[in-house]
Design brief:
- InterPro entries: Acyl-CoA_DH_CS, Acyl-CoA_Oxase/DH_mid-dom, Acyl-CoA_Oxase/DH_mid-dom_sf, AcylCo_DH-like_C, AcylCo_DH/oxidase_C, AcylCoA_DH/ox_N, AcylCoA_DH/ox_N_sf, AcylCoA_DH/oxidase_NM_dom_sf.
- It comes from Dyadobacter psychrotolerans.
- Belongs to the acyl-CoA dehydrogenase family.
- The chain is of the alpha+beta class and 379 residues long.
- It folds into three domains: 114 residues, Butyryl-Coa Dehydrogenase, subunit A, domain 1 (Orthogonal Bundle), CATH 1.10.540; 110 residues, Butyryl-CoA Dehydrogenase, subunit A, domain 2; 140 residues, Up-down Bundle (Butyryl-CoA Dehydrogenase, subunit A, domain 3).
- The chain contains eleven helices and nine strands.
- The protein has a four-stranded antiparallel β-sheet with strand order 2-3-7-6, covered by helices on one side. It has a three-stranded mixed β-sheet with strand order 1-4-5. It has a two-stranded antiparallel sheet with strand order 8-9.
- Helix 1 runs parallel beside helix 4, helix 5 runs antiparallel to helix 6 and helix 8 packs antiparallel against helix 9.
- The model has no long low-confidence stretch (mean pLDDT 97).
- It binds acetoacetyl-coenzyme A (CAA) and flavin-adenine dinucleotide.
- The site of flavin-adenine dinucleotide has 23 residues, from strand 1, strand 3 and helix 11.
Length: 379
């Protein structure tokens, strides 16, 4: 497989790196402290084309491949993993699904503003009693003439408050199991749709995570995506691509922490020489660089396979499983290399370590990725 980056890929990398260094880096510690993402930054991400990278230009997107998307995700997450997840949900969980499975009307009405970043999307699958066990949906959608009536609660929803358009998974025919699940496009402001509490998180603190409540929410039939009963397949198929995005986020977090550690190790002196001259530190740096490179290969491979139109379920799960473990390990070592300075906010690596943990949990925990990989191996 060819991992050489084309001129276009290198241009995307440079644009994302410039945005991350010049715009995201300056306020990243404050945003983490205050648990707020700056709307002006969000607008700039949209203006630069980072919110709908893989959407066809016909619908206002960048028309780029998945490899371009993961390259941008890596650069942005190197500096600000909160920006990474906001971007990832909009690109891979909302825009991609709408482009693949939405009707022309749905695309014109919802995809076009989402692709430009003028409007932000949320993907609402998880519930208090349906996380890994995603088919156990308690949210219901009852058909009633020309509309559905939605009732239920979703939790852990990224962009829960900042989004205007939500893709909401619900059971229409619980007796049919996963084949009775559908997904609906629901707009904020619809009567009965309430944004609940905001989570106070360990990491990715500048991205907003909320509970969403639906009480007799009226959704027109034309807002259902796909054929009746297609909702679970929609969610799983969307998550396959989402997992590549989160793998790239994890890769970025690891690479960001590594770059800081490499620099710090050459500046910090103990026993009369830079700590980079102690073999113990050199070995840490070697292991970090090697694991990051291996993670990058898996992430690029998954993206390439998706771009080639081949089945990428296993490749995506492997990339996420491995890259998230690498992110957790590398960021822990990065704090160690920084000593006491690594334990305080100013040096950034403690944030990277806190941010890394979520990549082993969301979009399918590491245990679920292993289950997905094993099922593919044993097919
Ligand atoms: N791709 C395509 N189809 C898939 C699939 C995949 N990765 N995984 C399952 N399916 C299909 C199966 O083929 C099956 O279809 P058929 O009946 O037609 O054969 C159907 O879905 C049901 O599959 P299973 O029988 O395997 O279902 P299960 O209940 O045993 O388990 C699971 C499935 C893989 C564990 C699934 O529930 C899962 O992925 N859970 C994790 C949920 C998750 O990732 N949530 C993320 C929420 S979004 C998020 O987290 C965003 C964020 O943080 C930013
Ligand atoms: P559980 O499913 O209860 O799992 C608990 C533990 O048991 C885990 O270690 C798990 O791996 C393990 N486990 C469960 N089942 C098995 C099994 N069969 N075999 C082996 N081990 C198993 N969801 C959305 O829909 N949209 C979002 O935008 C979103 N954003 C999120 C943002 C954040 C910050 C967080 C924390 C979560 C987000 N989620 C979102 C939810 C996330 O996807 C779930 O938290 C995740 O899928 C795990 O579900 P759970 O928390 O219910 O854990």
């Amino acid at each position: 497989m060819d991992f050489n980056l084309s001129e276009e890929h290198l241009a995307v990398q440079e644009a994302a790196r410039d945005f991350a260094q010049n715009d995201l880096l300056p306020g990243v510690i404050e945003r983490d402290n205050e648990q707020k993402f700056d709307p002006a930054l969000l607008k700039k991400m949209g203006d630069l084309g980072f919110m709908g990278m893989m959407v066809s230009p016909e619908y206002g997107g960048g028309g780029m491949d998945t490899l371009s998307y993961v390259i941008a995700m890596e650069e942005i997450s190197k500096v600000d993993a909160s920006a990474g997840v906001i971007m990832s949900v909009n690109n891979s969980l909302v825009c991609w699904g709408l482009q693949m499975y939405g009707t022309e009307e749905q695309k014109q009405k919802y995809l076009v503003p989402l692709a430009s970043g003028n409007v932000i999307g949320a993907f609402c699958l998880s519930e208090p009693e349906a996380g890994s066990d995603a088919t156990s949906q308690h949210t219901t959608a009852v058909e009633n003439g020309d509309h559905y009536l939605i009732n239920g609660t979703k939790n852990w929803i990224t962009n829960g408050n900042s989004s205007s358009v939500c893709l909401v998974v619900a059971h229409t025919h619980p007796e049919k199991g996963h084949k009775g699940i559908n997904v609906f496009i629901i707009e904020k402001g619809t009567e009965g749709f309430v944004v609940g509490r905001k989570e106070d998180k360990m990491g990715i603190r500048a991205s907003d995570t909320h509970t969403l409540m639906f009480s007799d929410v009226n959704v027109p039939n034309e807002n259902r995506i796909g054929e009746d009963g297609f909702g679970f397949k929609f969610a799983m198929s969307t998550l396959n691509g989402g997992r590549i995005g989160i793998a790239a986020q994890a890769l970025g977090i690891a690479a960001g922490a590594f770059e800081l550690s490499l620099k710090y190790a050459q500046e910090r002196k103990t026993f009369g020489k830079p700590i980079s001259e102690h073999q113990a530190i050199q070995f840490k740096l070697s292991d970090m660089a090697t694991r990051i490179e291996a993670a990058r290969m898996l992430v690029y491979k998954a993206a390439r396979i998706k771009d080639q139109g081949k089945d990428y379920i296993k490749a995506a799960a492997m990339a996420k499983l491995y890259a998230s473990d690498v992110a957790m390990w590398v960021t822990t070592e990065a704090v160690q290399i920084h000593g006491g300075y690594g334990y305080v906010k100013e040096y950034h690596v403690e944030r990277h370590m806190r941010d890394a943990k979520i990549t082993q949990i969301y979009e399918g925990t590491s245990e679920i990725q292993k289950l997905v990989i094993a099922r593919e191996l044993l097919k």
